[in-house]
Design a protein that fits this description.
By secondary structure, the protein is α/β, with parallel strands linked by helices. It folds into 5 domains: 59 residues; 123 residues, OB fold (Dihydrolipoamide Acetyltransferase, E2P), CATH 2.40.50; 217 residues, no CATH class; 43 residues; 248 residues, Metallo-beta-lactamase, Chain A, CATH 3.60.15. It is built from 28 helices and 23 strands. The strands form 3 sheets. The chain has an 8-stranded mixed sheet. A 7-stranded mixed sheet has the order 15-16-17-18-19-20-21. It has a 5-stranded mixed β-barrel with strand order 1-3-5-7-6. A hairpin with a 2-residue loop joins β17 and β18. The longest helix has 29 residues. Pfam families: Competence, DUF4131, Lactamase_B.
Length: 782
């Protein structure tokens, strides 16, 4: 079934005819005994493929042409997700019931498609009111539509693909004042009311806001309530699964509920039935995430088996839950939470029984704990490095220690505190204290471990062939065990193969003889990553985000966008970079160096190159951060050069001992790699360019155009001397400065230079090898 869904997602529908022909050919040539299997599996895959195409057709977009024009339309729709407010913006999905180009002809078009809506808020009263909106409410509003943004940097979050897998093709924006919302009853709204009531109860029980936010996520699945720093620490150490409602929560809650039912005298079989209905309500209460639904389904089937005295294989229950969920929504197959939940559960079902036969002299509870931890880590590893490029080498040890403690203390006592609070708050004092203290003692060493910057934490984006090999390894493991290959030498061989796969995941031989230069799309700013084979990494600037303090406290964002944290850091992680040999701070402007603040805690640094002029306030703050880490701060003089290997040479061209300041004091470097020359110019302007020409410039193959293509730079004098074959311009989409200037573009066109622009092409990658060079653009020309 999954093969049919995946093929339909990525191939032309003609594959269905091909699959039919191939299956018929196989049936004709293979022995009669196996024909029914081939026919059955082929038919299932083809039917799954047809189902996927039908599902996609039902979820096609009617308003996408309107969104391409960024046009405003009047919409009537139903709120189809929880309303999440962050500062002065609220976001949620709505299902359109009718729409029109103006309010009078609003009912002209009928539709049932979803859009991702963003509502701007102007006051605290509006913020308080919109938090009362619930699923099922009907809204009428003028909405300006647009297309969701695609990924603009390699392996970065693709918002458009994310929404597409939610059945959403367009986004919309409106203001609170223009929206007319009519509440309406829905089952979802009732459960959300109960969830909000539980969240308020937790806030009253746990006075510390950080602890309260953590417990709301742990007990109710409200992940957006967790402190961003705490959430980041859990992610870095591989503990994020604890904050997601999963099998651990379902098992604990259902067991506690069953125990209570039996204590009050309810017969065991009836208790099983009541617990099934309780589980359904619990899954709805905690938001019905993929992992919660999967756990609830499997738990309910397990309880039904107990009621009827039947036994089912765990793999059959797992497969039934998978098929049912994919029949409801096949797009879930591409959701990260869905993938991790089902993959790890299958891994536990398959590998834990085999693992228990190793080290048989160790107590069974220790073997079980270790087997569960290692099996989960083994299976989740490829998913984590593919989606997040993050896997801590101590993740297995941290999970081995922390997960049982949280399962025994914080989680059960948290639920007990909430239940006891219904009777009297005083009864919850002891459970609250136990939960709070256990979290305090757990988080203290975890933050210390995170600050250690352990090696092999960031992993390069895996290749398809590695994913195939690793999957084959996981498939072969249980088969070989059943065939009897579990002697000591077999286990040692398996371990060696596993280590080789881990080494291969680091891609030790990738790009050894190449220089890779990535001009990141950081909006209106500069950030360039230069990778010299597998030896050296240079980071030239890191962009920056202009941020103004919120006018009022309620307008503060939970985790504001910051280009260093949200663009540069994810890219470096996706390249598996953990040490940056040289940081080049071209000059002190925010749009060049502001993002470095967020990067300092995450990497080791060799040295920092600065222009040697009196630092700006921001530049001084960042330099002090580096100095606290013991990183040397250096500068240079025109004519200085250094080599990073055969055929790879750097030259410092500017500034020297002069009176230049501001943009004209930008560091200018020239890289010669395998006889190809690249000139990096920072934000240098007319006077600085004139000085460069006087000092003796030569022609270059690639010019990083200065100052985002401003007409104060890239003078005819400079361009005549450098005569670049290719020019790269870093500028923000629809930036307010009008960069790049039409004059600069005209000069480059007159020279015959090929122009790449981050505002048009997203991130731009130049790869130089001894054989030549080639370019990659994140967004291709259309």
């Amino acid at each position: 079934m999954m093969i049919g869904l995946i093929l339909s997602a990525y191939l032309h529908p003609a594959w269905l005819l091909l699959a039919t022909g191939v299956s018929w050919a196989l049936v004709a040539w293979i022995p009669f005994t196996y024909r029914k299997y081939v026919a059955c599996y082929s038919l299932i895959s083809i039917l799954a493929g047809l189902f996927f195409y039908g599902y996609e057709n039902l979820h096609s977009s009617e308003v996408k042409p309107v969104a391409e024009r960024e046009q405003r339309i009047w919409v009537e729709g139903v709120i189809d997700s929880p309303v999440r407010r962050d500062g002065d913006v609220a976001r949620f999905f709505i299902t359109i019931t009718s729409w029109g180009e103006n309010q009078r002809d609003q009912n002209e078009h009928r539709s049932l498609e979803k859009i991702a809506l963003r509502v701007k808020l102007a006051s605290f009263q509006e913020a308080a009111q919109i938090e009362q909106w619930r699923r099922g409410g009907v809204i009428v509003a003028p909405i300006r539509l647009s297309l969701p943004a695609r990924a603009r940097n390699p392996h970065s979050f693709d918002y458009a693909s994310y929404l597409y897998r939610q059945g959403v093709h367009v986004t919309g924006e409106t203001n609170y004042q223009t929206v007319d919302m009519t509440p309406a009853f829905s089952v979802w709204a009732s459960f959300q009311e109960w969830q909000d009531s539980g969240a308020k109860r937790i806030e009253s029980l746990f006075p510390d806001p950080e602890t309260a936010g953590y417990m709301k996520s742990l007990l109710l699945g409200l992940g957006q309530e967790v402190n961003p720093e705490l959430e980041s620490m859990y992610s870095n150490l591989g503990l994020s699964h604890i904050l997601a409602i999963s099998g651990l929560h379902v098992t604990l809650v259902s067991s506690m509920f069953m125990w209570c039912l039996e204590r009050i005298g309810i017969r065991r079989r009836l208790a099983f039935v009541v617990t099934i209905f309780f589980l359904i309500g619990y899954v709805l209460l905690v938001g019905a995430s993929a992992s919660a639904i999967r756990s609830g389904l499997m738990g309910s089937v397990g309880l039904l088996c107990q009621v009827f005295g039947k036994r089912l294989d765990g793999k059959d229950v797992w497969a039934g839950a998978l098929i049912l969920m994919l029949m409801v929504n096949p797009y879930q197959l591409w959701h990260v939470g869905f993938q991790l939940s089902f993959a790890v559960t299958l891994g536990l079902i398959i590998f834990v029984p085999f693992s228990l036969h190793v080290f048989v002299r160790v107590p069974v509870w220790i073997r079980t704990l270790v087997a569960v931890t290692l099996s989960a880590q083994l299976v989740s590893f490829p998913f984590l490095i593919y989606h997040f490029h993050l896997f801590s080498p101590v993740s297995w040890l941290v999970n081995l220690v922390v997960t049982p403690i949280l399962s025994v203390l914080a989680l059960p006592f948290g639920y007990i505190a909430v239940v006891l609070d219904f009777f009297h708050p005083f009864l919850a004092v002891i459970p609250v204290w136990i939960s709070t203290e256990s979290l305090k003692w757990i988080h203290l060493p975890l933050f210390a471990i995170e600050k250690m910057r352990l090696p092999f934490t960031y992993w390069p984006h895996p290749s398809w062939w590695w994913l195939v090999l690793y999957t084959c390894f996981l498939v072969v493991l249980p088969i070989s065990w059943k065939l009897g290959y579990h002697r000591k030498r077999d286990i040692m061989l398996t371990f060696v193969i596993f280590l080789l796969l881990i080494v291969a995941a680091r891609q030790p031989f990738s790009g050894v003889e190449e220089v890779r230069i990535t001009f990141l799309d950081v909006g209106q700013g500069d950030s360039i990553v230069v990778e010299i084979g597998d030896q050296k990494v240079y980071l030239m600037d890191a962009g920056g985000t202009m941020r103004f303090p919120a006018a009022e406290p309620w307008m503060e964002k939970r985790d504001p966008f910051e280009v260093g944290k949200d663009v540069v850091l994810p890219f470096l992680m996706a390249r598996g970079i953990e040490e940056i040999d040289r940081v080049v701070m071209t000059h002190g402007d925010l749009d060049h160096i502001g993002g470095l603040k967020a990067l300092v805690p995450h990497f080791s640094f060799g040295e920092v190159l600065v222009n040697g002029t009196a630092p700006s306030k921001l530049e001084g703050e960042i330099v002090r951060l580096f100095q606290q880490e013991g990183v040397p701060i250096l500068t240079g003089l025109p004519g200085q050069s250094w080599s990073d290997g055969p055929g790879i040479e750097w030259k410092w061209l500017h500034p020297g001992e002069s009176t230049f300041s501001g943009n004209d004091a930008s560091v200018v470097l020239q890289l010669t790699a395998f006889n190809k020359t690249v000139l990096f110019t920072g934000d240098i302007e007319k006077d600085g360019e004139s000085q460069l020409v006087q000092n003796g410039l030569t022609s270059v193959d690639v010019l990083k155009v200065a100052h985002h293509g401003s007409n104060t730079s890239s003078t005819e004098e400079l361009l005549a001397v450098t005569a670049p074959k290719v020019a790269v311009i870093s500028a923000g989409v629809k930036n307010r400065y009008g960069h790049p200037s039409s004059e600069v573009l005209h000069r480059l066109k007159k020279l015959g230079s090929v122009v790449y622009r981050t505002d048009a092409h997203g991130a731009i990658t130049l790869v130089i090898t001894p054989e030549g060079l080639y370019w990659q653009a994140q967004i291709l020309d259309t």
